[in-house]
Amino acid sequence: MAELVVALDFPAADVAVDMAGRLRGTAPWMKVGLELFCAAGPDVVRAVADLGFRVFLDLKFHDIPNTVRGAVRSAVRSGADMVNIHLMGGERMARAAVEGLHEGAQTTGSVPLLFGVTVLTSTAQGELPGISTDIGEYAASLAASGAAWGLNGVVCSGYEVESIKKRCGASFLCLTPGIRPGGGAGGDDQRRVMTPAQAVSAGSDYLVVGRPVTGAADPAAAARAIMAEMAAVRR
Amino acid sequence: MAELVVALDFPAADVAVDMAGRLRGTAPWMKVGLELFCAAGPDVVRAVADLGFRVFLDLKFHDIPNTVRGAVRSAVRSGADMVNIHLMGGERMARAAVEGLHEGAQTTGSVPLLFGVTVLTSTAQGELPGISTDIGEYAASLAASGAAWGLNGVVCSGYEVESIKKRCGASFLCLTPGIRPGGGAGGDDQRRVMTPAQAVSAGSDYLVVGRPVTGAADPAAAARAIMAEMAAVRR
After folding, report:
1. With bands split at pLDDT 50, 70 and 90, how would you rate the model's confidence at A73?
2. EC no. (chains A, B)?
3. A28 belongs to a structural domain
4. Which residues from B are below 8 Å from A122, CB to CB?
């Protein structure tokens, strides 16, 4: 059953934690991204987890292997249930992240999910320096590498889920950002957006929604409506 | 005159701030990387800056443009004097980072330096998924893009400084990690290491040294010895 992840895209902890509080009893996951984490640090992860949510710490690590191993270890110890890395960082970095995941879990007692970023969903064909191959094919080949390197799944556009599942197996998880009830570009960076129903039909396991929930007049109602749309899709 | 940056590669704030305290009056810069920042958040940047150091917040942002803009803004507001992004993130992301830099500086009153990561110094030829061109050439072309997109400089191996300066001009700054007094691989990730004297001779503007200082019996003495070696090089 696909799960909803609400992106807490706020510049400060108080507003983010307040929003999470208003969403209790709706989506099971909250996402803490770079802007919020750079402003608030690991305390905001703990605060959101303490409200009963599972937390996706979306920092997209991309550094030398030893640093990524340490960063994942720290992220796990902060209470994150899901973390991610860039697969463009290569095999040694990815395997170091897997090691950091398990080292961190020795402190917390549970092993979080480790996702790989293939191609950012904001990236259009021709925008990847040095990469001339088809962007969908490049993303699928990175996903296959991620599966081979021991990751749990990948962040990818809804349009790539089917080919990734075919190539990496149904149990290899897909998390899809840029979900928009009613589809249509939201005027932000996401280039390849989908509706919740489309993404669930495509086979995505986690759907990330930001402004359409957190910017709604009644965020909890908006979240419940999206979850109802998701549940109505027969897979 | 090239400047020394000491990498505070520690898993917790107390140890890192203690080390910075022991290094007062030696290196002008301290570096806070992903592992320390994920454990401690922006408070550690302020604590190190309050000791009188300039702080390089080395998080290597690589996300959708809007998120990187917000992350750089938050990083600047935390008191960082230098931040960095991956140039593999492309032009839109890089230009969004430049916007975030100036937005953040409206709060702090000074515009930090924005550096681009070309190819991680831990990456060997053939390890970059989808990139078959020569790694030095790929790094130099990314550096040229970074200069065109408005960055202050790039993180690069000492072996690439000359070609980058030739291509981007002497005022385009180069920061070189993996510096080792006496050279020789240090058993960690860095693949293309140099001595302080070699890096200064090559034209590098900032030299990053980690364990050779922070792991020394007398860190302050180790830092001073490296700075003396740097100063002795005639450019």
Report:
1. very high
2. 4.1.1.23
3. yes
4. 64-66, 92-93
**CA of B224 vs chain A CAs: smallest distance (Å):** 26
Burial of A99 (0-12, 13-18, 19+ CB in 10 A): middle
* Angstrom distance (rounded) from CA A36 to CA B99: 17
Nearest CA in chain A to B39: A74
Q: Is A176 on the interface with B (CB under 8 A)?
A: no
pLDDT bucket at B124, cuts 50 / 70 / 90: confident
- Looking at residues A133-144, what average pLDDT do you find? 90
pLDDT, tens digit (0-9, with 9 covering 90-100), for B153-209 = 999 988 889 999 999 999 999 999 989 997 555 555 665 678 999 999 999 999 999
Listed residue (A160, A227, A166) closest to A191, CA to CA: A160
Interface touch A129/B145, C-beta < 8 Å: yes
Total domains in the fold of chain B: 1
pLDDT grade, residue B136 (50/70/90)?
confident
A37 in contact with B at a CB cutoff of 8 Å?
yes
Domain residues for A184? 3-229
In a domain? residue A216: yes
Residue-wise pLDDT for A162-172, tens only, equals 999 999 999 99
B219-231 and B13-22 helices cross at what angle (nearest 10)? 60
CATH number at residue A220: 3.20.20.70
Average pLDDT, chain A: 93
What is this structure's pTM? 0.95
- Residue-wise pLDDT tens digits, B182-194: 755 555 566 567 8
CA atoms within 13 A on the CB side of A69: 14
Residue A59 lies in a domain: yes
pLDDT for the residue numbered B43: 98
The number of residues making up chain B comes to 235
Q: Is residue A166 part of a domain?
A: yes
Q: Each residue of A4-37: b (16+ CB within 10 Å) or e?
A: bbbbbbbbebeebbebbeebeebbebbbbbbbbb
Q: How many CB pairs under 8 A join A and B?
A: 159
Question: B163 — phi, psi (to 5°)?
Answer: -70, -35
